[in-house]
Design brief:
The complex is a heterotetramer. Chain B has 14 helices and no strands. By secondary structure, chain B is mainly alpha-helical. Chain B has a domain of 228 residues. Chain C has one domain: ABC transporter involved in vitamin B12 uptake, BtuC, CATH 1.10.3470. In chain C, helix 1 packs antiparallel against helix 9 and helix 6 packs antiparallel against helix 9. Chain D is of the alpha/beta class. Chain D has 9 helices and 12 strands. The chains are: A alpha/beta, B mainly alpha, C mainly alpha, D alpha/beta. Chains in contact: A-B, A-C, B-C, B-D, C-D. At the B-C interface, helix 5, helix 6, helix 12 and helix 14 of B face helix 3, helix 4, helix 10 and helix 13 of C. Bound molecules: adenosine-5'-triphosphate (2 copies) and magnesium ion (MG) (2 copies). One magnesium ion binds next to helix 3 of chain A. The site of one adenosine-5'-triphosphate has 12 residues of chain A, from helix 17.
């Protein structure tokens, strides 16, 4: 295993510097039933440093940090915090010892105020009453001190995402955390907010606090961290000092092979640069003046227009949460647009429902297969039917003969394992679950394919299979709209690349003109 | 590739049967304890219970009679449950169905051809149940109102209004029932199978079984059933698959109500030929138990309906030894036990399954 | 004088609602659907009579009522919290269970299918209808204070803050070391105690247990909770409103202005209206009914 | 049917009684039937079996269970058994049946349809007894307002109300009868809490005597009488024990006697099918006047009531049975 070799390669920076260790996790294993989320993970974090924990989706980062913060108990292994054994402690013990975690998903109670969320579990009291005044003034002064400004008397539901993120960090600080764990804190932040966050974290480091930050974005790793631990497939595969490494090296450790290879692998784009200008009449998909309101009633897509040509992969890159999900939902008919039109070929499908769009030639690989893409308790065969059920009906209802035939073919064609169509989708691995979705969406006539995060959470073998499928679709003259948070994926596949930022296309370039360095600033709104 | 398939079938069988069997076993233990508090021997009581139900044609006929209503209310609960909804309103829907059937039977001329009359009354029963079910359906689909609370509250409203209508306007003097219908009679089984003579069992049981088969077909063999179940399991995925989720909810509640309403013809067309205040007598709530034990599957529901009908008829048979309230307790215990063991067993089996698949796939790759 | 009589009668009718609704609010606020209120009340009523009969005093009855409520709550907790059974199913089953069990043990203890013998209770012989008489019953005081105190508890104490957090977003509370499961258990037990006091009030005021004597009051309390949008003072107002409607019906029945059954339906209809959001939407705690 | 093989042996009569909802221990008419059974067991050395069915089809099944066991007499207590007992009487011509409160059907000319030879309908003129207690309430109550509380708002209970009202009006034409019902569902017979509040509200409006016909709901009426120190009138059985000192009297139905009579008739071989109506004349209904309540009822009132009773028996007063 190459990972084992690379993990032993870098020396422990902390040990070198002889600084005291804030966190030391050794040989930590954790499994959930059959899923082995962490395998013999080692993590060392020196006091007073910012430590980045990186790895692909599903590598086990969150799980490891949940163990550190006492939310999960490890199946085996030991944990020390500031030299004291903390193996198997609970949330309260972790909090008491100064370990606080900001979770990947907001852990705030929307109906409570900022102050109430902060003091929850550690409330100031006057007599037996909650001391609301003190709670608010404590929060206010903490906010002043750290520069994380929020109004303590507002309820969480009224806050913007950035503000909510600040509350999350304040919550941890309020508990006197000296070791802060931040799980993908920037995923939902706008670039200025990210900068603000960096300022805050550096300030905390200056005060002697230790920070562990999980992120997928290498530029952030480089920008903020002192040291890095890379995880892959549940293992810790590398420990690097930021100053003496490069994004390429980190990426290589993350995916276990040379990323540069992936970039070079781009086949000569079938669609010429001439189609790089939008507005061609025979576009496979064309979007005009699209505006969309988000769940909070704010404008998340702002007068967007673009075309996807037949035989082209149109890639949309960008930090998640910049309107990509809403865009896909609107194109697929799962969400209403405020204004604007969607055309499939020459047909105006703006008023169509999901089914009619599918019949008009739209295929859709949704970004969240567990929620949208699959009915987990349905069999593989039934999942291959989802959205196509009206094409498999006869006078007596569903035509199970044809359905079985169809399923058998698809399972074979798309190499779904185990190849038993009657198994529940839930029992399959992530990669094979994704193959079901792809088989369904690409195994039928279509002219336009929406592919959202098509390789998220699937392994290398499956990634290559999926990429090959997308290229095949292009070769077949389909229009593919690829949305991915993984820039290298977009660079590797797309013919034209747009970066989505705050509901608009920040740039639209032929892929041949794109590099990660060029697109980076657009993704962060810096360009 | 036969290994995983066999495994799948075994698994499914275990999933379907383990929990209900466990639940019934728990109920038996509770029953034993209660019988012992009365100073009777559980063996004797259970023997008497069986003897009075499955031990002779008449007792079995009574069981069949009760089974009919329970199949319908069980189907009602299951059909909504498959769409992810809790229809707790079968009690009211059942009463409404019986009421409509009786009114139609009263209104029809005596000379109406039997088949036509029965069909009209049956359609009326299902229609009234459907309308009663549609109210929570609309409120859920349109406003997101909890169908649990709405159906509970609606039970009170519907039953009170029917009572009012009957007691104040329609009842035969000195009774709580309407006049005997003019048309729409369904024969009792005793009419052509003399062994059943005297028992209330009637041909509507056939209609109930047909309803179960139709429900099975609708749930598992049609497009709308496919969509219904998808909505119940994962509404987001169903929506992605082109299903209109609120409309599916509404349709599910309408059919659910129709199934419950259908149960009304048992008493009205097959037995007494009039609507009587209180004839539903808890069958609506028992339908929840039937559906749970039957795992929301029409075949399971038929079996579970037989089980609960046996318990209920058996209560009468053992009345000499222990109070029949024993049976009320047992029925509640079965519901609690099934509700508790089903998710537990499911978790256990799922863990075993994913472990097996995991093992299987690593074997394959290596 | 008429007004005073009206107010007193409204209060008497409202007491069981207030107590059960208080229990229901706390139960739902920790995320457990309060469908078992009716069963808890009935168990409380039966416990009160058993205790009073064998213990010879209403106070023993009160203690036994609470014990009965706790037992029902524990059964619910075992099924829903420990084994994560569906809360709706468990709530309904518990009601059926208590109806059956009280009948069974009524038979066993008093050899009657419908009534217990007369027992010691509160009030009684010649106590009259005055203010003093009404307020000499300790349960009346508990009933009047339950929801205001609960309001204070929920919105003014650390315990209440945690309860509200658990009902809205238990996973968030858990990350802060709030013991979610234990809080839910305590909420459910408190619900059992309060609801059983509501039943005890009926039984001890009546000096007797009668089969199914709660007669749907648990569901009226549930209706009040929804109509009062889970806010203790609003819920109290809803209970008093429902009770006042009943009082009005009782006092005006001779006049037959409205057929009495329509007045009885007011709580149910209002609840449906509230759920449909016709007059301001009634939104339950976010984590209500979700197995934790 | 199930018990058919266990045919009872011995010389004594075998009697089966099927109770109405409420069952034994209702301190009302089921207990009256039970008492009749006990009497038969005592003085006729009969063996008595009881069944408490649930609702619906259980009623017929309960009767059938007993009939099939070869009982000599099967009693169905309550109007609700009307159809069932008629069916059974046809199915088991060798068994004698009695239906308490049996609801007669009538032909188009308004004549009651004949009953099978082995079925006797035991009917009571509750309105006559109610008339007398109504008169007593008005005479003793010292108020122009008297109260009536019914259980479920149905014709059967209206009979009590009608007789009572007529009794009140007969002795006190300017009196007012406050009438309230506990509800429109069968739960209205099981809601003592509601009964108490209804009664308190009537007492509060100046009523001194309340007559109830409301099953267990009436227990709340007695409780209200205790609380306010006022008077209540019981129904079906002597309910003095519910609130000693506060029960003016009870309108009693001689169910026990009727049941016992039926048993004795079977024993003697004099059983006859048909309708047996128990009114004042037959001493089938009446009111309680004994050591417990003698002090509450002045002699003048007693005398007046006796006169009214004679008038009714003689047909000089016709008591309405509907309102
Ligand atoms: N509670 C759980 N039960 C079962 N499996 C789990 C659970 N939590 C995590 N897993 C699985 O453990 C593995 C590691 O998950 P984890 O959330 O730690 O990944 P991650 O590195 O944080 O990924 P991401 O970057 O997507 O957040 C995944 O396969 C995940 O599905
Ligand atoms: N959060 C979760 N909760 C429950 N089960 C999960 C979860 N995540 C993954 N699993 C299950 O764990 C098993 C392995 O999933 P995982 O995605 O880790 O597979 P994998 O090894 O990555 O497969 P592949 O190579 O196809 O991507 C599957 O059965 C999956 O359904
Ligand atoms: Mg993560
Ligand atoms: Mg994977």
């Amino acid at each position: 295993m190459s990972g084992a070799a690379s993990s032993s390669a870098p020396l422990s920076a902390a040990a070198e510097a002889n600084a005291p260790l804030a966190v030391r996790m050794r040989q930590v294993c954790k499994h959930f039933g059959a899923v082995q989320a962490n395998r013999d993970v080692n993590l060392e974090v020196a006091a007073g440093e910012i430590h980045a924990l990186v790895g692909e989706n599903g590598a086990g980062k969150s799980t490891l940090m949940h163990i550190l913060s006492g939310l999960h108990t490890p199946s085996s292994g030991t944990i020390e915090v500031f030299g004291r054994d903390a193996t198997g402690w609970d949330t309260n013990a972790a909090i008491a010892a100064g370990v606080g975690m900001v979770h990947q998903h907001f852990m705030l109670v929307p109906t409570l105020t900022v102050a109430e969320n902060l003091v929850l579990g550690r409330e100031p009291v006057r007599g037996i009453q909650l001391d609301q005044m003190r709670a608010e003034s404590d929060v206010r002064s903490l906010a002043e001190r750290t520069g994380l400004r929020v109004d303590p008397s507002r309820t969480i539901a009224e806050l913007s995402v950035g503000e909510a993120q600040r509350v999350e960090i304040l919550k941890v600080l309020y508990r006197g955390a000296r070791v802060l764990v931040l799980d993908e804190p920037t995923a939902v932040l706008s670039p200025p907010e990210v900068d603000e966050l960096w300022t805050v974290l550096r300030g905390l480091r200056a005060q002697g606090d230790t920070i562990i930050i999980i992120t997928h974005k290498l530029d952030e790793v480089v920008a903020i961290s002192d040291t890095i631990t890379v995880m892959r497939d549940g293992r810790s595969v590398a420990r690097l000092a930021t100053a003496s490494t490069s994004p390429q090296e980190i990426a290589k450790a993350m995916v276990g092979r040379d990323v540069a290879l992936a970039l070079d692998a781009r086949v000569g784009s079938a669609s010429p640069a001439t189609s790089a200008t939008a507005g061609s009449a025979n576009a496979a998909l064309s979007i005009r003046g699209l505006s969309v309101l988000g769940d909070r009633g704010n404008l998340v897509i702002d007068a967007l227009s673009f075309d996807v040509q037949p035989g082209e992969i149109f890639g949309i890159a960008g930090v998640e949460g910049n309107g990509q999900s809403e865009l896909l939902d609107v194109i697929a008919g799962l969400r209403r647009a405020k204004s604007g039109t969607v055309h499939l070929g020459n047909a105006d499908v703006t008023a169509f429902d999901v089914r009619s769009r599918a019949d008009a030639g739209l295929s859709h690989i949704p970004e969240d297969r567990h929620r949208r893409g699959l009915v987990l308790d349905y069999s593989i065969a039934d999942n291959l039917l989802l959205g196509q059920q009206h094409h498999f009906s006869n006078a007596m209802g569903l035509d199970y003969g044809r359905i079985a035939e169809h399923a058998a073919t698809q399972v074979r064609t798309f190499d779904i394992r185990p190849p038993n169509p009657s198994l529940a989708a839930r029992t399959l691995s992530g990669g094979n679950q994704q193959k079901i979705v792809i088989a369904r969406e690409m195994g039928r006539p279509f002219t336009v394919l929406l592919a959202a995060q098509p390789t998220r959470g699937v392994d290398v073998g499956a990634i290559e299979f999926i990429h090959a499928q997308l290229r095949a679709a292009r070769a077949d003259g389909k229009g593919v709209l690829l949305v991915s948070a993984d820039l290298s994926e977009v660079l590797a596949l797309a013919d034209r690349i747009a970066v989505m930022y705050e509901g608009r296309l920040a740039c639209l370039l032929p892929a041949s003109a794109c590099t990660a360095e060029l697109l980076g600033p657009y993704m962060t709104g810096a360009a | 590739m036969s290994a995983p398939r066999e495994h799948g079938i075994l698994m499914r069988a275990a999933q379907a049967l383990l929990a209900p069997v466990l639940a019934v076993a728990i109920a038996m233990v509770v029953g034993d304890l209660l019988i012992l508090t009365y100073g009777e021997s559980p063996g004797t009581v259970y023997a008497l219970l069986l003897e009075g139900t499955w031990g002779n044609a008449y007792g079995f006929g009574q069981v069949l009679y009760k089974t009919m209503t329970l199949i319908c209310t069980g189907l009602a609960f299951a059909y909504a449950a498959r769409a992810g909804l809790f229809n707790v309103g079968a009690e009211g829907q059942l009463a409404a169905g019986g009421f409509a059937a009786a009114l139609i039977g009263l209104a029809l001329p005596v000379a109406t051809p039997a088949v036509a009359a029965v069909l009209l009354c049956t359609a009326g029963a299902m229609g009234a149940g459907a309308v009663t079910g549609a109210v929570p359906g609309v409120l859920r689909a349109r406003f997101g109102a909890s169908e649990v609370i709405v159906t509970i509250m609606l039970n009170f409203i519907v039953l009170a209004l029917l009572n009012y209508a009957v007691a104040s306007h329609l009842a035969v003097p000195e009774t709580l029932h309407t006049e005997v219908m003019q048309a729409g009679f369904v024969s009792r089984l005793g009419a052509f199978l003399p062994a059943f003579a005297g028992s209330a069992a009637n041909l509507t049981i056939v209609i109930a079984v047909i309803a179960a088969v139709v429900a099975w077909w609708a749930m598992f063999r049609t497009r709308s059933g496919f969509e219904l179940r998808a909505v119940g399991l994962q509404p987001d995925a169903a929506e992605y698959g082109g299903v209109n989720v609120p409309r599916t909810w509404l349709r599910a509640m309408i059919w659910s109500g129709a199934f419950a309403g259908l149960g009304g013809i048992n008493f009205v067309l097959g037995y007494k030929h009039y609507y009587e205040e209180g004839f539903a007598a808890g069958s609506g709530f028992l339908g929840i138990a039937v559906a749970l034990v039957g795992r929301n599957h029409p075949l399971g529901i038929i079996a579970a309906a037989l089980l609960f009908a046996t318990l209920s008829q058996g209560g009468l048979a053992v009345n000499a030894l222990v109070p029949k309230q024993l049976v009320d307790i047992l029925q509640a215990v079965v519901i609690l036990a099934v509700a508790t063991t089903v998710p537990e067993v499911q978790r256990l089996l799922q863990r075993a399954a994913s472990a097996a698949v995991r093992r299987g796939s690593t074997e394959q790759t290596t | 004088m008429i007004l005073l009589a009206f107010v007193l009668q409204t209060i008497r009718i409202a007491i069981p609602y207030l107590l059960a609704a208080a229990g229901g609010v706390i139960s739902e606020r920790v995320g457990v659907i309060a469908l078992g209120l009716e069963g808890m009340m009935l168990a409380g009523a039966f416990g009160a009579v058993l205790g009073s009969y064998y213990g010879g005093s209403a106070w023993v009855g009160l203690a036994c009522a609470m014990l009965a409520g706790v037992i029902v709550a524990l059964i619910m907790a075992l099924c829903t919290l420990r084994y994560r059974a569906d809360q709706v199913v468990v709530g309904i089953a518990v009601n059926l269970l208590v109806i059956g069990a009280t009948r069974f043990f009524l038979r066993l203890s008093f050899d009657s299918a419908s009534n217990s013998p007369r027992v010691d209770g509160f009030g009684g012989e010649g106590s009259g209808l005055g203010v003093m008489a009404s307020f000499s019953n300790p349960i009346v005081w508990i009933g009047l204070l339950a929801l205001p105190v609960l309001g204070w508890l929920l919105f003014r104490t650390p315990f209440g803050l945690r309860v509200r957090a658990v009902g809205e977003k238990p996973e968030a509370a858990a990350t802060l070391g709030v013991p979610v499961r234990s809080l839910q258990l305590r909420g459910l037990l408190l619900c059992g105690i309060l609801a059983s006091l509501g039943g005890a009030y009926l039984a001890l005021d009546q000096h007797q247990f009668t089969d199914s004597m709660t007669a749907g009051r648990g569901f009226i309390a549930l209706a009040a909770i929804i109509f009062g949008r889970w806010m203790p003072l609003r819920v109290a107002a809803a209970c008093l409103l429902f009770a006042a409607a009943e009082t009005l019906q009782i006092q005006l029945q001779g006049a037959q202005l409205v057929p009495s059954q329509f007045v009885e339906l007011i709580p149910y209809v209002l609840t449906i209206v509230a759920l449909a959001g016709v007059v301001g939407k009634s939104v339950p705690p976010a984590a209500l009914g979700k197995a934790q | 049917p199930s018990g058919a093989t266990i045919a009872p042996e011995g010389e004594g009569l075998d009697i089966g009684i099927v109770f109405d909802v409420g069952g034994r221990g209702d301190k009302s008419f089921n207990d009256g039937a039970y008492l009749g059974g006990l009497l038969a067991a005592d003085s006729l050395s009969a063996r008595v079996r009881y069944i408490e069915p649930g609702e619906g089809s259980d009623r017929e099944a309960g009767l059938r269970l007993l009939a099939a066991e070869g009982m000599d007499l099967v009693l169905a207590v309550g109007f609700i058994f009307t159809d069932d007992v008629l069916t059974l009487a046809k199915d088991y011509p060798d068994v004698k049946f009695a239906g308490v409160d049996y609801a007669l059907s009538f032909d188009d000319a308004g004549n009651p349809l004949p009953l099978p030879d082995n079925l006797v309908a035991l009917k009571f003129r509750e309105e006559e007894g109610s008339f007398l207690v109504g008169a007593m309430a008005a005479l003793v109550g010292e108020s122009k307002k008297v109260g009536f509380i019914g259980g479920m708002d149905i014709g059967l209970i209206h009979k009590f109300e009608a007789g009572y009202r007529a009794g009140v009006m007969h002795v006190c034409p300017d009196c007012e009868v406050l009438v309230q019902y506990a509800g429109v569902t069968p739960e209205a017979f099981k809601n003592p809490g509601k009964g108490k509040e209804l009664a308190l509200s009537q007492y509060n409006q100046g009523v001194n005597v309340i007559y109830h016909a409301s099953g267990s709901t009436g227990l709340g009426v007695f409780e209200a009488a205790r609380t306010t120190g006022k008077l209540a009138i019981g129904v079906d059985a002597d309910q003095y024990a519910e609130a000693p000192g506060h029960v003016l009297t009870s309108m009693v139905k001689g169910i026990d006697a009727a049941v016992f009579d039926a048993a004795r008739a079977v024993q003697d071989g004099t059983f006859q099918g048909g309708v047996r109506v128990f009114g004042l004349a037959e001493r089938g209904v009446g009111y309680v006047y004994d050591d417990n309540n003698r002090a509450l009822i002045p002699d003048s009132v007693r005398t007046r009531l006796q006169a009214l009773e004679e008038d009714i028996i003689a047909g000089r007063i016709r008591v309405p049975s509907t309102r």
